[in-house]
Amino acid sequence: MGFLQLLVVAVLASEHRVAGAAEVFGNSSEGLIEFSVGKFRYFELNRPFPEEAILHDISSNVTFLIFQIHSQYQNTTVSFSPTLLSNSSETGTASGLVFILRPEQSTCTWYLGTSGIQPVQNMAILLSYSERDPVPGGCNLEFDLDIDPNIYLEYNFFETTIKFAPANLGYARGVDPPPCDAGTDQDSRWRLQYDVYQYFLPENDLTEEMLLKHLQRMVSVPQVKASALKVVTLTANDKTSVSFSSLPGQGVIYNVIVWDPFLNTSAAYVPAHTYACSFEAGEGSCASLGRVSSKVFFTLFALLGFFICFFGHRFWKTELFFIGFIIMGFFFYILITRLTPIKYDVNLILTAVAGSVGGMFLVAVWWRFGILSICMLCVGLVLGFLISSVTFFTPLGNLKIFHDDGVFWVTFSCIAILIPVVFMGCLRILNILTCGVIGSYSVVLAIDSYWSTSLSYITLNVLKRALNKDFHRAFTNVPFQTNDFIILAVWGMLAVSGITLQIQRERGRPFFPPHPYKLWKQERERRVTNILDPSYHIPPLRERLYGRLTQIKGLFQKEQPAGERTPLLL
């Protein structure tokens, strides 16, 4: 029996060690919430007044603690005291506090609360650090807390910006913290470096459970390094602010790891998350991002693009309308958005009208003048625009040199112009390639209006840069997940099928149709000189129109009775 008891104790001890980062579920109905270091705690806050939280048995080699609490979109408050003061509390969807421990301190208390009417589901965790680890936010001069480990996040349609306070070097219990600005040598906080990480949630998933589950991968240093994408490394001389391209409806988590290269120690800030949209707003909320006007516009655009993908070269004038629509619509949308504050739906209607005018203008230019080089220059520039956008959609677009607008636009324009120059000797191939690639991409844009995909940001990032003067500083990373691979395969399949079909069908045919205006003049002269041609005896256009109007009038006149019209005499 003694051996059996020892075996049971050993099994229980091993289970306790494995559960070091286990999830603990509970609620705050007891009025006191107990925490353990390194364990995630799920609970619900539904009271307007603070609830006390406590941690027992703090190890003596722990110098400071970081407590953090997360919710999806409802604010919660964490405070050092029951009385909420601006310099001793933090409110938000991702809030944290740093507890600098005193000598011999083994217990820590703080307070949690929410001002919302609805109950708030939260996830919280305590992380411990030693005296060798840097203190996140230890040299805060911008925000309210004395030591602020939080990441502050702001977003608009174009960009999402995160800000954080500089860190300080670690120090032992009972010792004054190192001065923040006493010097810039290697013995000061200026040796610290900051690694900024980005983590994407699964696409098209706005559930609270998914967010809280993935937040567990972004709280501690090893998990962040293993799970997230490192975007940039900042030194102490850089501004503690980084911008990213906003992705409405896409959950993104950001965190910062401060690293001490002298001691090779690190500490994590409190991660922040965003969907770049509001869960509470009515119009334009996260649940209803796809506007009806966008769906109608891009669906019609995709139908025309699908036709161009397979039949564009044969129906040359229709393709020219499609190309002119794209060119005029793109530049008109940029112009009207930058110069006027009109609403998006009205802007989209005006863009469709302007694009139609541009398409008809390009068709008219071809019909009257028949200059193939001008038309093919427009066709090649549209294909070059997409290829250039794809180039900067890759990690190449995040290089520091391209954060300069001048360098970016010059390089972008050179790539776009290079395409028609390279294919100048084989214009039919250029035209068929443009039909297949551009026509199939219009289908991708239509899919995005119903089911979000990262492939739409190939061109949307360029449009954002043209519309917003601050977008040049933003990193344009996007998630590339299962649905993106599926849509990429659809895009490739459509493009290859359209190009192959048109190349096979156009073999042995003239490269391009003849000049329409010349054909019309030749036909008119032939009709005038050839009296044997039945069309020679066709009346002039004015007489034909007058005769047609007379026939139409006759349809609305009352038919007169035939025979005697004299009334009978009584």
Automatic annotation (TrEMBL):
Residue stretches making up the TM7S3/TM198-like domain: 299-503
Keywords (A to Z) from UniProt: Membrane, Signal, Transmembrane, Transmembrane helix
Residue stretches in coiled coil: none
Record field: transmembrane: 296-313, 320-336, 348-367, 374-394, 406-423, 430-451, 485-503
Entry keyword annotation includes Signal: yes
Membrane topology qualifier: Multi-pass membrane protein
Superkingdom of the organism of origin: Eukaryota
Subcellular location field: Membrane
GO CC annotation, single: membrane
Signal peptide limits: 1-21
Pfam families in the record: Ig_TM7SF3_N, TM7S3_TM198
Protein name in UniProt: Transmembrane 7 superfamily member 3
Organism per entry: Pan troglodytes
Lineage: Eukaryota, Metazoa, Chordata, Craniata, Vertebrata
